[in-house]
Amino acid sequence: MIQDQQLALAVQLHDEETFDNYVGKTNEQVVEDLKRFVNSSGSDINSFYLFGSDSVGKSHLINASATYANELGKTALCLSLKELVQMSTEVLDGLENLDVICLDDLHVLADYEDWQQGVFDLFNRVMEQGKKILLTGNNTPTQLNLSLPDLVSRLSWGSLAQVKALSDDEKIQALADRANKRGMVFQPEAMSFLTNRYSRDMSKLIECLNTLDKLSIQSQRKITIPFIKDAIDSID
Fold it and tell me: Which of residues 136, 162, 188 is at a domain's end?
């Protein structure tokens, strides 16, 4: 029971991260390849590995893949390896029964040999069951600093794709879409100021957007450039 509760903590529940609201043409082909992978059946390709530097949108894409699988009537689960490594590898038992299992941030396993073996074993069970496994990491398989050669080899067997950073215009569009869904009123010049003044790191920008939303509600102020300046100063 405790283990079930622990596993629940590692499940990524980002329903707002879908293919429909993924912005930008930079990774358009990656999105199409992921859709094809999730939707395919009876294929020899059972794995898909996404890699790219931090904050390029890998987590959005892997969550979107799980959501897309659910929309197709498939069973899918997205798990954060950053949280899973604090648990026993037994939490991976039985996941091969899902149609699509998604594991985010594989690179954190560099310091966990037991978890490398656990993911490798899950990989084999997934292949035996004819299911699919989707993983993300911050580098190519051979540059993940994994100590288990067999796991590195498995990652190279299936499909691989690099997720590239969005352009500044695409980041602004992505933030604008999130702001609109929250009912936040952002002028284009204010959004541009945010990306130029605060950060070009998407995860930090999203965190900042969330903070701006809360502060604007608390202070009953519109989100203008002066407001953003004040807010950034308080964040820093």
Answer: 162
